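Posting for a labmate who doesn't have an account.
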Amino acid sequence: MVLKPCNSKESIPYNLSFFMKKYLLVILSILIVHVGYSQSKTDKDFYNTDQVKEIRITFKHNNWAVILDSLRSNGSKMLVGTANIDGAIYKNIGVRYRGSKSFTTGGQRNPLFIKLNYIDKKQKHQGYKRLKLSNALRDPSMVREVLGYEIARKYMIAPKAGYAKVYINQKYYGLFTNIEAVDSEFLEEHFKHDDNVLIKCTPDIGGTIPEGCMPNVFGALAYEADVACYMHNYELESDDGWGDLIYLTDVLNNHPEKIESVLAVDQTLWMLAFNNVLVNLSSYSGRRSQNYYLYQNDKGQFTPVIWDLNLAFGSFKSVSAGSDLDLKQLQELDPLLHIDNPYKPLLSQLLKNETYKKTYLAHIRSIVYDNFENGWYETRANELQTLIQGPFLDDKNQVYTYSDFKNSLTTTIGKRSKIPGIVELMSKRSKMLKKHPALRVIPPTIEDVQAVKREQYASEQIKDFTIISKVDKLPKKVSIYYRYSGSDDFLVAEMKDDGKLMDKGAKDKKFTATIKSNGHTSIDYYIVAENAAAISFSPANYMFELHSANLMELN
């Protein structure tokens, strides 16, 4: 057998050669289109709010709703089906109804939990294995969760949220809020591991309180000796961890001076500030101290992760036993709510510490000015409603009218539930917070933050980092927190206004500090300034945005 070169005229007849060339061109064009299509589906995150996602679920059973009702009441099994998510097909998924009060037997629009890896453990969509779809209970605006999570993520670790149109067996089931699950993928993204203790703070409301346990403490992190008391108020979502949770509550309530060893205090203060500003009372700050997770990092510190925001912006109105708060009381909710309540130790114990209290108030100030006082939240809420208006109108299972939907930003909806309009609530609330005595104090101002560069024609290179900033409004202490890489702990150094470094003269409001490079070429940092009444940070959202300096750029 003789092999002939591909360019030989004898190797392929002319007509066949022409056909194959045309065929290859067609195949190549299809591949190019297919690659482009695949990239277009994954370029944007599943939870982005540029568009409403589409989820089509198919079950073999026509009585799927009856089966899901039964599964919701009997164990943890799921109904197997197929999902088409924006054109991507996933077989053998598991589906269940989810929610407590948002679920009703026989309901036409129950919230859904979809497990893409129910049978195929590797199956996922854009890296996500579990989908949680909320029916926006008691939120006629349908923006509370998406807007709330968007604000939360500016300052703390929190889930993403967007929207999805859901179809079941070819029939439109409804418009849902699409919320990222706090699961192994979430933990890997934010903590770089997923095998530490994870606790869900979800009290067994209405369940029988175990004998010897305190009543009505819910998920407030009260200290109790019996693990059964914790099992009544928390869900363990890791293999072990009850002992760690008990130790956390013991330290919090009995040894608060050691609290930083077991709690990520700053993230906790951000969560508490967020709950208060947004009147998010179906939370730790409300009556039942619920709807948050605790995840333990490698240092043994628990970090809170906020959850379930459909009742934020005053839709849930209870802070203690007794009557719900009215609109005026919600607008004027005390920023220091529960500061003296021994049954709310995250607030009462942490805010005994003067620095923590100033930090908490600084976080409230940041949230108010970044999102509400400038009107950003109203603009954003209108943008979200514009995005979902069409799918909302098509949702025949929706419990609210289109009029409720449109008016829900500015007007209280419902004669019984009386859900405040978001703007109606927050426009007056932000003005009240600005004038509140605890927040009216003038904090230090931190301006002109910079790393000193090598002067032109200077022969000696800069080897260390000298940071200088103007700090005004009577600072009594200015500190710089710095690290050499993103995985390092922050170190702290004092910044001084003594005229010995680059500030030229003492008492000129120019504070400086020199950080030794120790063989490193760059640092990330933020500045903290404290006066007698308040504390300030630069950048204000320093948990996710930092100043930086690089020796190559400085030289």
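Reply:
Got it, the structure tokens are right above this. DSSP finds 15 helices and 19 strands in the chain.
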